[in-house]
Amino acid sequence: MTTKPTIKPLSNRRMRQQVLKIGGRTVPVTVTTNPRARKLIVRVHPATGEVAVVAPSTRALERAMDFARSETDWISDRLAAVPTPVPLEPGDTVPFRGRLHTVRHEPQERGGVWLDAGPRKAWIAVAGRREHVPRRVRDWLRAQARTEINEAVGQFANALGLKPTRIALRDPSTRWGSCSTTGVLSFSWRLILAPPYVLNYVAAHEVAHLVHMNHGPRFWALVEHLVGDTRRPREWLRREGSGLHRYGLV
Predict the structure, then answer these.
(1) What is d(CA 69, CA 90) in angstroms, rounded to the nearest whole number?
(2) Who is most buried in 44, 143, 160, 225, counting CB within 10 A?
(3) CA-CA distance, 237 to 242, in Å (whole number)?
(4) CB burial string 226-236: b at 16+ within 10 A, e below
């Protein structure tokens, strides 16, 4: 499931660092080439605010910054929407399975990371040294994501009599899941931050691609057969998804 195609730089030797003036501020811009790009593309990372221009060829590099300047209003809007990062320090709040939890440091305890949830408030408790708290919370969230995504994929794949080649966990900025032609399913670990029905939907979506490598009517009918309502999780991701990228940036 993709909001925009992911285009990676061909080589660091074809990358240039430029600056752009937007609203009185200086914004760094990375300009790079990729022959798979069909035209000049401007990107703003939804979590970090990093601005990049991708050109289809070295000849197009000369027009890259002019193109970026023509898109300053769009870039400014995207930069304004970049949320304040949450590094997962003690006292920070982070959603886990759609419910807000406060990170709590318990240096006197043993046991790594654990949940302490009540009817009104919930915590992610972390033992050990203070400087290790953010990393331990990130690692714990990724481990929880792997467990729940594997379970969801297994459930939907078994229902279809299928088995993916492999399940990978990543941290992409523009997609929540993908399915390769070789049957490898990849997912964003940040799905563990969303409500369970959202994670289940993305898992069903990518499992359905094992049968239909497109987004045609038969594909959507299969997703609905697996997970039921698809509108609610899609609307949640459209409305709330970009905010999930603010947590645990490294």
Answers:
(1) 41
(2) 44
(3) 8
(4) bbeeeeebbeb
Which pTM was predicted? Answer: 0.79
**Residues 6+ positions from 98 with CB-CB distance below 8 Å:** 193, 194, 195, 196, 198
Fold for the domain defined by 132-246: Zincin-like (3.30.2010)
Residue 26 to residue 191: CA distance in whole angstroms: 33
pLDDT of 2: 43
Chain segment 90-101, per-residue pLDDT in tens: 999 999 999 999
Among 167, 137, 130, CA closest to 249: 137
Nearest one of 206, 149, 216 to 179, comparing CA atoms:
206
Whole-number average pLDDT of the chain: 91
How far is 190 from 240, CA to CA, in rounded Å?
A: 12
Secondary structure (3-state) at 2 = strand
Tell me the C-alpha distance between 40 and 247, whole Å. 30
Distance CA 235, CA 237 (A): 5
Could you state, in order of their start, the residue ranges of all structural domains in the chain?
12-81, 132-246
Question: Which has more confidence, 246 or 83?
Answer: 246
Which one-letter amino acid corresponds to residue 221? A
Measured over the CA atoms of residue 49, residue 2, residue 172 and residue 90, the dihedral's sign is positive
Crossing angle of helices 196-208 and 133-160, in 10° steps, is 50
What is the DSSP code string of 131-149?
A: GGHHHHHHHHHHHHHHHHH
Q: pLDDT at position 111, please?
A: 81
Per-residue confidence at 119, pLDDT binned at 50, 70, 90?
A: confident
